[in-house]
Amino acid sequence: MARPQLLAWLGLALASLFWAGNSLVARAFSGPIPPLSLAFWRWAVALLILLPLVGPSLWRHRQVLRAAGWRLWVAALLAISLYNCLLYTAALSTAAINLSLVSTCLPLATFIGAGLLLGEWPARRAWFGLGLALLGLFWLIGQGDWGVLSSLSFAQGDLLMLLATLDWALYSLLLRRWSRYFQLPPFTLLGALVLLGLLMLAPLYAWDLMRGARFEPSPANLGAIGYTALFASVIAYHLWNIGLRELGAARTAMSNYLMPVFTALLAWLLLDEGLQAYHWIGGGLILLGLLLAGRLQESRA
C-alpha cells in the first residue's frame, strides 16, 4: 500500500474515533442542548477556528470557488447543514444501538452509488471485505447473540438517522464526482463548506430561538460544543475529505465500521464498561474486512 493511502486510512480511523465521541456527546447532551443549537454553534466555533488558517487562502482561490458555484452550495448543504440537523435530532428519540445499526447503510449505499454515479465498481474481493466488516458490526451490535438483532425495536428517530446516512453518502459521492471543480487545499475547501453551511443553518437556528429552544452556557455544555467544533468538525471532516481524495468514496465509507468499535472502547475507558469477547470478535472482523478492502484498487470486478 502506498504511503499516501496508508496515511489516509490512519486519518480515517482517527476521524471515526472523533465521530464516535460526537455520537456520545449527541446522546449525552440531547436534553441540555437543542439539536439545532448544537448544530449551529458547532459550526460557528469551527468557523472561528478555521478563518485565521484559511481566510487568506479563500481569497486567493476566489476564482476557483466562484467557478464551483452551485456545486459548492450543494456540498455544504449536505455535509454541514442537513447532516448535522438530522443526526442531532435523531439522537433525541432513538437508542445508541439503533444509530449504529442504521449507519451501516453508509458503506453499502456508497459502494452502489460509486458504481452508478462515478463508474467506480469495487473489485469482487472488496465486496467480500464489505460483507466481512458488516458481519463483524452485526456481531458487535448483537453482543454475540443473533437473537438480539431480531428483537430490536425502532423509534421515530431511526428514519432521520437513515436520511442522515444517505445524505452523507451522497455528499461523499458528489465531492468525488465534482473533484475537478474543487481543486483547493483541503482546509480551504473545508472552510468554504463551513462558511456556506453555516449561512444555511442560521435561519433554522433563528427559527428555533423564536420557539424558545435555548441552552444554558454551562462549562459542560460549552465543552461539548468545543469538542464537536474542533475534533468532530475541523479535524474529522478534513481527514474524511483527504480520504475521499486518496481512496475514493467506496473505500473511504468502509471506515464507518470503525465507529462502533471506538464507541465500545470509549465506553470502556469513560464509563467503566468492561470489554467482552464479542467486542474483540466483532472488532477483529471489522478490521479484517477493512484491511481486505484497503489493499484493493477500486476497479471493475
Write the layout of secondary structure elements.
Layout: H1 3-28, H2 35-60, H3 62-68, H4 70-90, H5 96-103, H6 105-118, H7 124-141, H8 146-150, H9 157-177, H10 186-210, H11 219-247, H12 249-254, H13 258-270, H14 277-294
Tell me what you see in this structure:
This protein is mostly helical and 301 residues long. The chain has a domain at 3-115 and 154-249. It contains 14 helices and no strands. Helix 2 packs antiparallel against helix 4, helix 4 runs antiparallel to helix 9 and helix 5 packs parallel to helix 9 (157-177). It is globular and about 50 Å long. Mean pLDDT is 80; it is low at 296-301.
Short description:
This protein is mainly alpha-helical.
Our estimate of the beta-strand percent is: under 5%
Which structural class fits the helix and strand makeup?
Answer: mainly alpha
Supply Rg: 19 Å
Poorly predicted runs are 296-301
Keywords for this entry:
14 helices; 301 residues; mainly alpha; globular
